[in-house]
Amino acid sequence: MVDLMPSETFNKIAEEFYRVTKPGGRVVISTFSFGKKKINKFWFLVAKNFPDILTGCRPVSFKENLVNAGFKIEKSIEISQNTFPSEIIKARKPKAKRD
User: What's the whole-model pTM score?
Assistant: First the structure.
């Protein structure tokens, strides 16, 4: 649901994910992405010009917010589901430092 939230809240959302994730724990986030294929631009234009069709969902980039919150990105892939572009991010919270 990150792609439904205001972009100015992304850092706070990522920080909250970090807060509730155990040390060494993982998060997996799937967002509507910009995509790299020509057909993916169709969905960007729909989101931009007719947001109600996608209930306000729009392409976002969330990886940097996770890194800024302290996560380490383990894997990030772009997929296309029936031409609808998505990014799936797997990130891990570092284990607690030993004293």
Answer: 0.86
